[in-house]
Every structure is written in C-alpha cells, then in structure tokens.
Amino acid sequence: MSDVIRLEYRDITMRFAQGTGKMLTAISGVSFAVRDGEVVSLIGPSGCGKSTLLNIGSGLSAPSEGQAFVDGERVEGPNAHVAFMLQKDLLLPWRTIAENVMFGVEIQRLPLAERKRRAQTLLESLGLAEFSGHYPHQLSGGMRQRVALARTLAVDPSVLLLDEPFSAVDAQTRMVLQRELAQTLKRAGKTALLITHDLLEAVTLSDRVLVMSKRPGHIIDEIKIELPGRDNPIARRREPKVAEYVARLMDRLDIGGTPLEAGATA
Amino acid sequence: MSNASRNALVRRGTAASVAVLVVFLAAWQWGPGLLGIPSFIVPPLSMVAEEAVRMMHVNNVLLHTGVTAGEVIVGFVIGSLLGAGIGYALGMSPTAEFALSPYILALQIAPKVAFAPLFILWMGFTVYPKILVAILIVFFPVMVNVLTALRTVDPDLINLARAFKASRAQIFWKIEFPASMPPLFAGLRIGSTLAVVGVVVGELVGGNMGLGYLLSFGEGQANTPMVFVTILLLTLVGGIAYLLVILLEMRVLHYLPKRALGGL
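The joint structure predicted for all components is written out below.
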C-alpha cells in the first residue's frame, strides 16, 4: 500500500429537495481519503447517505457542496477510473456471460480482441470459464454476482465502489464471494470502498472501517483493522480480536442500547 | 420442473386437448339435431364442410382468403413499424410524450373500427381503407407496450451504462432497445389478432373482396353454413399471423427461459 490517494471526499454535503419544498440534508461535511490498494468499509444506519456517497464518487450525482477526487482528478461526471457494483447483479439477460463481462469495455470501445482477452482472463480467474456462453438465468445468484464482479474489474478501474455487493446471496455463498473479492483486490492491488450493513464483513474485508451517523450523515468514527490476512476473510473470522472490533462497531451504531435500527444489524 | 414430469405434462395435456376437440366436433355434428335446433341457426359440422367444398368451386374462396390475408399482413407490418417507431421516439423524448399523451389517450379510447366508413369514403372500395383500419388498430398496443417498456427499464441499468461513460445512443442500443423486446413482442401478439378484426370490419363496411365481404354476402343469402366457413377461415388467418409472430419471438427472445408450450 502506497501513500498515493486514490479516492478522496472533501467536505461533501448533499441536500435533496423534498416534496414539501423543504430541503433534506442527507450528508453533511463528509471528508475522508482512501489510499492506493486500501480497502475501506463504510457502515451506518439505513438512510445515512452511504449510497449517495457512492453515487458522488462514481460521478452519477454531483454533491451540493464539496468535491470528490479520484486519482487526483476532480469528479465531474462518470469517468473511467471508477467502477461500481451493487447488490443487484445488473446482468443483461440478452447477453451471454462473456458478453456481460465485456459490457463496460465495449462501451469504452476497446478493440474486440482485447475485450475478449479480458473477459476470458477474468472468467477463468473467477472459475466461470465454462459458463462464458451461458445466459444469466442459467446461473445461480452467487455466480451471477461473480460475473458482476468480473464486469466491474474488466474496465480495469483504479477504484471499485461496492454497494452491499453480497447482501442478496445466502450466507455460505457470501463467505466464498467475500474471499474471492478479497483475493482479487489483493492480487490486482485495487482500491475499494465497500458499503455494507454486515459488521463482520466490514471487519474481515477491510483495512479501515468508517462509521456514519444517522441523517444528516457524517463520519463519527474511524477504526483501523489491525489484523493479518486481509486477503483471506474466512481465516480472519477466526481471529479473536474480530469480536472486539464488531462490538465496538455495534456500540458506535447504538445497536443493543436502543431499539434496533431497521437494517443496521449484522 | 424436471424433464420427465414436463414430458408427462405434455403427453397428458395433448391427450386432453385432442379429447376436447373430438367432443366439440361430435357435439357440433349431432348436438343441433338432438336439441332440435334448425340447421339455418346452427348447421351441423358435415353441412359446413360441404359448404366449404362448394365455396371453393363457386365463390373463389381462396382468392378472398388471400386478399384478407394480404391486407392483414400489410396492415400489421406497417402498423407495428409505426407503433414501435413512434413508441421509441416518444420514449426518448419525455417532453413530446407529455405534450402528446392526452391526444394519444383519446385516439386510443376511440373505437378504431368506427373509422372504417370514413376511410371508405376517402379511398373507395379498394384494399386501402381495410389496411388503414388494420394499421390504426395495430398501432396502439405496439406503441403503448414500447413506451411502457422504455419507462420501466431499471434505472440502475442505465446508471451502470452511464458510469461506464455510455453515450445516449449507446444507452438506447445496448440497454433500452433490447430491454423493450419482450413487451414489444407482447404488443405484436395482440396486434396480430387485432389486425384481422380491423381488416374484417373494413371489408364488412364496403367492397366486394375478402372474407369480410363473404360474411355479409352469406348473411344476405341467409346462408348460415357460409358464415360459419368464413369465420373458420378468418380464425385460420389470425392464427397463422399469431404463429408467425411467435416464431419470430422465439428467435429474437431465445435467451429467455423456455416456457411450457401452454404459455404460447
């Protein structure tokens, strides 16, 4: 991990107009930076603006105040440095698996041979090579999410924005996918911002965890995860200190003390 | 569903289907006689079959069927192309859609077949008014389905493409257009059966060609079997049009999970 900053949010405030004509402040004064090769998780109660931060980072929406930077460049719209992955796999049903992986690089007009080479390499490394000619409906939810990861990586972004990528798959598949993601990020040296509701996922996959408050969302805590094996979350789960980190996150999120915030459980 | 149970379903379903047909044909043949219904009200099957043979020789029924089928195909193709084209154009321009929606709605509510006499006044006893009614009646379900399809494309899919820096044209050709195919084909299926309705009404209103003309000719002569034969032929024309749409749909939407035959 170098000291080069890949993703930076500087004093971001986001307001939305409400139906009543009043403005709703979703995020207020959020600043943080993610260094090259670092994986940072963002946790917080539902509606605290986590996904809004992701949209700002990917250039899909502009903040009301403040600026976002990727690779030192100010984000002023969608750009090739960032790619995002959501809870929904967003695979196109009319495209084969290989064609879905090539979707981003096709839009970016890379030569066909290069597109095919990238898809082939990624599908092989994610154990999907034999499915390249299949259609999405023929694959399980876990496999489809793996294809979505391949599509995200195919554009070779310097920053990955991941919005609860595994929350729709079953617990066991999720662990396998988390390990694959961790290994892939490590191998490719990618920088990632991971939004999650799963505290254990945040602790086992990241170098740092940022905790956001209720609306208007701002960062209330930053926890450095000092555990070995960021590329092997399954092994990391067995570390005794994991429970301490999770407990601290629960305290910061007021889980247990007050009635449970919907969706804020692990 | 496993293959074995699927096969069993197909076998049982086919057997039951054939049984229904046999019972229906038998009821048609002997039912009217048993119930004392006169043959000028419901002619038995054999009488209708004899009439079909007679019409072949005397009334040039193949020519009339051909004329109707031709009008259906031309009206359906033009109506579908117009409906889809305008549907995509309105879908791409929310302002135009907003401005035109009350008029579209009004035209959609207006019974399209009521335009048939008007078109005959304009174009005389030719094939054109029939084709025009078919175009008008096919246009709406196709256009509305395309418009709805474009409006209901998952915004996250569009955002995904936008995040990859897709142009407006790329978003249309790579996301919106393919995503609109299943609803477009649903509209085409409806359109294919409605095209027959449009053409028949046009032929009933005026002219001396086509199955619609034979219907009113048979009615005028109080020839009930002739009316029955003509209805059967119209069903056949509509059925073939529908089948052609299904065949095209199976090619275009080959990526969708296979549906049971019953889902046709």
